[in-house]
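Section handout 9: paired folding examples.
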Amino acid sequence: MEAEDPLFIMYTSGSTGKPKGIVHTIGGYLLYSYITFKYLFNYTDGDVFFSTADLGWMAAHTFTVYGSLANGCSIVLFEGTPTHPNPGHIWHIIDKWRVNIFNTAPTLIRSLMKFGDQYVKQYSRQTLKVLGTAGEPINPEAWLWFWEVVGDRRCPVVDNYWQTETGGPMLTCLPGATPMKPGSATLPFFGVIPAILDSEGRELEGPAVGQLVMKNPWPGIARTIDGKHQLYEMTYFHKFRGYYCTGDGVQRDADGYY
């Protein structure tokens, strides 16, 4: 296959409610999933990866399938309800299969928090080295519980922002390298150049709140919307000419963290 041949089409509605068939290609997507998995989770040979992401989501395509397997990583696949037969089931899986990297969503973290710490602490979790969270902004309270209770304050929490269209993380903490901040996706990944625009398309400097855009392409960027290339151009590149428009709002603080 050629690098720019289509690899898969993933349907996403975003906020429109009308599914769009996002097309990712073989070379760029595979490179981006490989390299983001490797550096986001500090992958080393022999690590075991476990993500609760549904395989129909981009997070599972990139990390549970393509990125992990491209790195030669062993993966744990789980089908069921995380709280059945009890709210400690996730931590049981981690101990049983000696999981090193655990990736989940803020929604699950918050749902397990409400059952208390005892379901976590009855398992050792000593094999864990990195915790990941993505899918939506994480509130600081959930971040701190993930860090203090699940990771025993020794496992870096990798909070990362991305979209079906980006193919992989764009803003992310790097474990052991980026000073963490509860509730923040921290800094851009290698080669990613974000910017914040106001409603008129003017670029904002320093601490700011506005529209999140990207100033240059990256390997994992979606190449088109299946059968609707004009819609692709209009959706992502027309509102702010010269930028990839995420459609998301963002805040940048005094430390440059997003």
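Moving on to protein 2 of 2.
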Amino acid sequence: EPTVRTELMEQIPPIAIFLQESRPKFPTAFFEYLMPIVVRYLTDVNNQVRKAGQEALLILLEQDLVAQSDIENKVCPILLDLSAPDSDDEYKVEAVNIICKMASMLSRTTVEHMLLPRFCELCSDGKLFQVRKICAANFGDICNAVGQEATERLLIPKFFELCSDSVWGMRKACAECFMAVSYTTSPEVRRSKLSPLFISLISDTCRWVRQAAFQSLGPFISTFANPSSAGLYIREDGTLSIRPSTQDVNSNSCQPSNNITLMSSSTNAT
């Protein structure tokens, strides 16, 4: 019964935590018995069971309970299979969603070598706009997961594609994550490539895209600031914040910081 399998998945994380705390007594129980069940249920025929399996997997990754070998040899391969071009549409949408969510929990090497090539392919998926929209909405997180070099070499070209997508929802999603993408790039790329791209979004024919771009204007400008003088930094959750200063700063350096804070606050409020 699907309800039984769903309930089982909901119990996996607390059982895994118990086994981790009692590891001397159960050194291999999780890897031998529980992890294979989680991986198998990612392809279950029932979507509720798959959803429960995905949620369980994310909790296990967040708690650092999954071994690196299991991530690379068991989890990533099944997600790559599910997100393949010839995969079932429903499975593909779920797979790209879980790939985007787990990217921030994995090592940079694993994401770059195993998941990034597929993510770039999915950004250009011409069959399902839902897939492209998930990629656009999580683009900043992927950039943060792989770092500056891979972002500028592989992801920025895909970001340009998404920012000019024929579906306005894609362009709107890009505008909303623009700050996170900009923060990962070098000042030169930020100035020469992203600034003109942002102008195109702020001049978009769709008012929803323009509105999202204007709301991201302050945070985007903040990425040009010198962190040592402005005190601006990006939290782990991707939000803009100000690091408390240990010494007084002059009024010239303080004023831009205050302006950016107000613009960022208004963005969050809306």
